[in-house]
Each structure stands twice: as structure tokens, then as C-alpha cells.
């Protein structure tokens, strides 16, 4: 816990008492804030503090995801890309070899101890916040936002496994059925999925120079060209010379699931008490939902997705 419940500000207590509440499957309560669910008063206070105090810079690069959409991979790739002059991707001293990507690119709304590597300028900042909840300074600044989305069926399955890993010791497992029901209702941290994705999707259509919208599934299919697009978008394009010595492949290899997940730091390290670095690596594949969802569940999620995304142009 970063802030104990008793340390919540008066403003936050008042806010909480005005918000719709549901039980969280993981632990504690969820509060519906600005249309999305937030787990616990602690997080809510963190979010409100960020909204009030965070000062964005035009040079900032925001990496935005729903949990379990490939945040860890995106962080690794952007860190390697932005810092490639300082840290050669082939170096045996590269920070990604001894740090989990979450220790190198921090979340706006919750603190994770740094291991002494400064991400310097441009600042790389990640968040799970929906567009509507970003601090005003982020919306007003010229900073870049990369949004990574994942097909909702795999996102759900990945989330289900994650929840059970975090819960298992204390409370026994969550059933697939109850997790599925919450997902369909959108009642889980940072849900609903569709509204979160749609907010950034629409913004990416309105201001493509500010918001780049990627899908995990497409990035898996063609990681090289996604990395090039990322580099162009954040203002550090891959040069001809870099292409000639296969920089793209070097970064992809450094950040690949197999490479990162087998590093000592990611096999045995801990990000926070109760959160092992290995929890962020499971299968890293597209379509694992087929091994978990019944045909009825898959059909139901497809129907909700179709209905919610409507004519927005966003499809999965
Ligand atoms: P699965 O549970 O389907 O395996 P997040 O980083 O947002 O928490 O998302 C975690 C998901 O991304 C997990 O999906 C995890 O295995 C996958 N992942 C982690 N590192 C990855 C990498 N380097 N490449 C591809 N997928 C990765």
C-alpha cells in the first residue's frame, strides 16, 4: 500500500463517498471515477494527485495501455529505442538485461522503485489511465502518446491469469466465469475495455501527430515495421546507417519475449512485494483465448465488442 486508507485526504474521502462502488475480484473495492473503475482509495488519491500536480513537458513520451495489453514489451522497446545511443542494444551492460522494463519506465499513477537508471530526456512515462483522466497538462502539452491495445479476448485471458497469480496465496482462485462476467460488465481496474480503447482511438484519428494507436496482435505479426513507425512517431527515426547494421532486429531480439523472460532478473526478481517480475511474462502469444474461452464466451465477447465499437472503425 502506498497510502494507507487513514492517510486519504479529506477531498479524496469526500470524492469516494460520492462514487459508485463495486467489490473488486482481486481485493477491496472499486470506485467508478470519470467513467472508469479504480481499485481502492489509495489509487484514487494517487490519480487525483497526478491530475492536480503533474506537469507535462512537450518532449514527454507517454506509453498508455490497459493492463495486460503488452505494456512490458512496449516499455522495453521504447526504452531501447530512445536510449540506443547511450546503450547499444548489443551491449552486455544494457539496462534491460538487469532490470525489469517496469523499473526503467515508470507509471505516472504509482511509484515503483528505480534501480538507479535515469531515463533522462525525453521522459518516458507510462500510464493505464483512460484519456478522460489524463492530467490537463498532458492534454494541453505537445507530448506524444503511444497507445497499445490488445484484442479483448486475449486481454481478458491474460488478465484472468494475472489476477489469479496475485490472489492465489491469500484467497484462493477466481473462477473463469466470475472473471468473465466482470470483464463483460467492464467492472475491473481501468475497465471498461472498450471505452478505454475508444477514447484513444478517436483521439488518434483526430490528432495522429500526437497519438499513435497500435495493436499488440499486429505488432506481434510485424514487429519490425511497428518499431520503425514508433521511432518515426517519437522523433528518433531509424537511419539508413542503423538499418545497414540491423538495429531493428537487435532491438527486437533484446526485447523479445523469449529473451526477456529468460533473464535472471525477470525469472527471480520482484517488482514490489507480492509482484514477481516473472508475473509479467506468461505466453506472449496471439489467440491464447482459444485455449480458455468456451465458444459461447468467445461469441458473447465478440458481440459486445461489435456493439460497443460500432462504426468507430476500430475492430479486432
Ligand atoms: P499473456 O498473459 O497472454 O502471455 P502487460 O505487460 O501489459 O502486463 O501484458 C502482459 C502480457 O504481455 C502477457 O501476455 C505477457 O506474456 C505478454 N508479454 C510480456 N512481455 C512480452 C514480450 N516481450 N513480447 C510479447 N509479449 C510479451
Automatic annotation (TrEMBL):
Its EC number is 2.8.2.-. GO terms for molecular function: sulfotransferase activity. It comes from the Eukaryota. Keywords: Transferase. The keyword Transferase applies. Residues 58-312 form the Sulfotransferase domain. Signal peptide: none annotated. InterPro entries: P-loop_NTPase (IPR027417), Sulfotransferase_dom (IPR000863). Pfam families: Sulfotransfer_1. The keyword Transcription regulation does not apply. Belongs to the sulfotransferase 1 family. PANTHER family: SULFOTRANSFERASE SULT. This is Sulfotransferase.
Amino acid at each position: 500500500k502506498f497510502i494507507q486508507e487513514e492517510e486519504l485526504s479529506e477531498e479524496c474521502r469526500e470524492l469516494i463517498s460520492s462514487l459508485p462502488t463495486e467489490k473488486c475480484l482481486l481485493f477491496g473495492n472499486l470506485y467508478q471515477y470519470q467513467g472508469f473503475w479504480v481499485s481502492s482509495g489509495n489509487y484514487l488519491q494517487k490519480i487525483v494527485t497526478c491530475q492536480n500536480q503533474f506537469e507535462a513537458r512537450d518532449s514527454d513520451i507517454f506509453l498508455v495501455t490497459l493492463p495486460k495489453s503488452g505494456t512490458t514489451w512496449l516499455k522495453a522497446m521504447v526504452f531501447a529505442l530512445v536510449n540506443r545511443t547511450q546503450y547499444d542494444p548489443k551491449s552486455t551492460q544494457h539496462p534491460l538485461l538487469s532490470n525489469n522494463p517496469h523499473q526503467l519506465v515508470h507509471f505516472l499513477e504509482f511509484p515503483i522503485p528505480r534501480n538507479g537508471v535515469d531515463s533522462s530526456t525525453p521522459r518516458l512515462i507510462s500510464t493505464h489511465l483512460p484519456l478522460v483522466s489524463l492530467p490537463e497538462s498532458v492534454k494541453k502539452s505537445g507530448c506524444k502518446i503511444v497507445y497499445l491495445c490488445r484484442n479483448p479476448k486475449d486481454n481478458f485471458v491474460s488478465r484472468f491469469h494475472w489476477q489469479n497469480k496475485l490472489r492465489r496465496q491469500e484467497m484462493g482462485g477466481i473462477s473463469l466465469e466470475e472473471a468473465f462476467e466482470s470483464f463483460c460488465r467492464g467492472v475491473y481496474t481501468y475497465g471498461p475495455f472498450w471505452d478505454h480503447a475508444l477514447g484513444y482511438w478517436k483521439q488518434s484519428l483526430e490528432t495522429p501527430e500526437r497519438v499513435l494507436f497500435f495493436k499488440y496482435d499486429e505488432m506481434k505479426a510485424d514487429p519490425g515495421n511497428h518499431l520503425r513507425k514508433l521511432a518515426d512517431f517519437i522523433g528518433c527515426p531509424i537511419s539508413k546507417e542503423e538499418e545497414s547494421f540491423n538495429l531493428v532486429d537487435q532491438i527486437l531480439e533484446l526485447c523479445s519475449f523469449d529473451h526477456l523472460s529468460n533473464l535472471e532478473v525477470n525469472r527471480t526478481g520482484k517488482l514490489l512485494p507480492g509482484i514477481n517480475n516473472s508475473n509479467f511474462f506468461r505466453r506472449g502469444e496471439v489467440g491464447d483465448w482459444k485455449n480458455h474461452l468456451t465458444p459461447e464466451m468467445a461469441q458473447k465477447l465478440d458481440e459486445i465488442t461489435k456493439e460497443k465499437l460500432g462504426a468507430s472503425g476500430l475492430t479486432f
